Structure formats: structure tokens, C-alpha cells
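New to this. Please check both lines:
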Amino acid sequence: MAVVSLKVSIISLTCCAGCVSSFLNAGEALLEILSGDFDIVYSPTFVDLKEIPEVDLAIVEGGVRTEADEKLIKEVRAKSRILVALGICATHGGITSLGNLSSVKKILEKEYSLPVSRELPELEDLMYPICNFVDVDYYIPGCPPMPFLIVHSLKSIVSGKAPIRHQSVVCTECHR
């Protein structure tokens, strides 16, 4: 039986891109996935396409902080069979949601004490996880998620199994 590759898109919303970097750090395990299970057909990081195609699996990092993010996540959901939230920004708002502690006006005044000479994206007042806007099928937590966890989770999803869920926190492993 021939191996059928899933068409995959990798999308970044408001984030630091650490989750995609962690995905790339999977090394040989990543090459194994890409050679058999996945065919990345859209990712601004890897593939230069203007239109988001219909895909079997969409992997989304980052949260929603702009109107463009909201529009993009809704389009991605409409064009994907399975949607995976990758990293704490996508699953919970993440470190970028620390901006929720101040108003957008205060943040911009602090960061740009002089008048801004270039146009900035229109920021919403709060940072949101993607599940506030669309249904999410799987969550891969972490900031960024460990490469082995990303690979294991994606392999599980491809094979139709539920990914493992760690039942403890790192602190339980400490012997101090």
C-alpha cells in the first residue's frame, strides 16, 4: 500500500516564531515525517504562496492580537480538516498576552517615545488564544513545545491516535 502524504499548512499569527523553530529542531525525526507523512503545501516560512490552499492538517502557532490574525485563523479553519494549536500563544495567549496588562496606547507610547514614522498593524486591546475564534482539534502546549513532543503528537494525529498528554509537571521530576 502506498503511503499517502497529508497536505499540511503551517501558519504563524502574532508570536515570536519559537514554535516553528522548535519544530525545525526535531532534526532527523522531522525529516522522517516530511519524507512520508507530510507534504507542506503552505507556510510563509518555507513556501512562497499567496493563497492558503485546502489542507488536511493546519498547524498554527501564535495568538490573535490583530484583525488580520482573526481573519487568517478563520480562513485557515475553513480550509483545513484538522487544526492543531502549537505552543502556549495558540493554546492560551502565551507570553505575548502580557501585553494585556496595559492598554495598546500605553504600550505604543512606551515603545515608541518619538512619533512612529511607519504604519503599525492595528492591535486589538487583548491577545487571545485561537480557540476563542475557531474550533481546535488538538493542542500541543509549551513555550516552545519540545521537538520530541511536537513530532510524537503529529505522528499520533496522522495515525489516528490521540497524542499522549503529560499528566505531571516538570517540578515532579526534580529531586530537590
Notes: DSSP finds six helices and seven strands in the chain. The mean pLDDT is 84. The CA atoms of residues 31 and 39 lie 11 Å apart. Residues 6-173 form a domain with the Rossmann fold fold (CATH 3.40.50.700).
